[in-house]
Amino acid sequence: MSSATTIADQGLKAFNASNYVEAITLYTTALGINPEAPDYYLKRSIAYQRSSQYELALHDAEIAVLLANRRGKRELIGSAQLRRGIALHLLGRYGDAGFCFNAAEKRCGEKEKNMLGIWRKKLEMALEKTGEDDVSREVTIEEIPQVEIPKASDKVTELEADKPKEATKDTSTSTGSGPAAAAATTTTPVAAPPPSPAGVITPASKIRHEWYQTSTHVVLTLYVKGVPKDKASIEIKSKTLSISFPLPSGNDFVFDIDPFFDHVVPSESTSTILSTKVEVKLQKANPGKKWADFEGVHEDDPEEKPVVETKPMYPSSSKTGSKDWEQLAKELTAKPKNKGKGKEGEAGGGDGESEYDSDEGGDPVNYFFKKLYKDADEDTKRAMMKSYTESNGTALSTNWSEVGKGKVETSPPEGMTAKKWGE
Fold first, then answer.
1. By 3-state DSSP, what share of the chain in percent is helix, strand and coil, each rounded to 5?
2. Rounded to an integer, what distance in angstroms lies between the CA atom of residue 330 and that of residue 339?
3. CA 351 from chain center: how many Å?
4. Is the bond leading into 259 cis (omega within 30 degrees of zero)?
5. Any alpha helices (H) in 251-409, and if so which ranges?
6. For the chain, what percent of residues have pLDDT higher than 90?
7. Average pLDDT of the residues in 47-52
8. What's the CA gap between 282 and 87, in Å, rounded?
9. What is the per-residue burial (b if ≥16 Cβ within 10 Å, else e) of 389-413?
10. Mind giving me the DSSP string for 336-358?
11. What are the Cα distances from residue 238, in Å, to 242, 272, 301?
């Protein structure tokens, strides 16, 4: 039997591919094994939300709030309260949504505050359209919801809301014959086809998205037909995106990303609503940087972790692995200077050429390789010259038995790309 982590990873892949029905099924299976994983509830809550199943999205978010409080993880509590507030807003419970947004603001990380700001604006716009005494303004919830957490022993079944509902077929047949039956057949009225719905005609469960990137932009395409331009909302910020538009059912479809894999430039980004799709073109804040995925991951620590610069390790034929030539050069230059004043054979003695003297100037790394070549035998020299020349300076080998077998290919350091002159 697969572990909960393995199944949840499959659910995440389905989620990122906009296959929300499959994602819900996989996360449900994972929660049947480990019913106390708040991250699984949060992801399933978003999948429910994007499938327009807002009651189920709310239920999962509330369980996530309870579990996050039990674990005492501040940012996780903030994330769960934010998802809870979004679900309540989509259900038209604006007072409760505002209560959750306030709770989320106290704990969520910097990366989620952009998304929180977007939903606060949506809430303000919704409240402007409701009366002061409207029941939707009432606050009826508590900060920590009173919900029951499922047990691992409970049988995991797919909810009816997750299953596609098939149209009821008329299986009745006429067993009569003759004029009476014919009359019954001819007098049965034929229902006229329903009129085409105004606005969005793509079912919420069928709405999907794809993305691709160039060196300067990331382009998101949301495949949905009939989005009303005058009622759609697209908000782009440096690390977040929120798209919403009304569905024929009266609910809103919401697609939000928080955070992006990397920063974008909102002022240089654009969006277009066409008859068959919604397209968002985001300009990268760091042109040339490749995005591994469209959506990034929130870190537990809100502070940026220091970036440790790693120096390239050049290829080597040594059985002990790659050598750090700069470190070897430092060790070489750390030796005491030799001016030939000591006795021969003693420390500080000799002919004055065996140690590098910084007074002579020059690069200690170059000196090291010169000395390595000078003291090597003929096969080693041939190996060094052949490997260095044929690899365009990206490899250096002292093993002639290996180098002599064929051409040494160009092997740039990790993270770099070899290019021909002029490219």
1. 40, 10, 50
2. 20
3. 62
4. yes
5. 325-333, 364-374, 378-390, 400-403
6. 26
7. 91
8. 27
9. ebbeebbbbbbbeebeeeebeeebe
10. PP--S-S-TTSTT-SSS-SS--G
11. 12, 18, 20
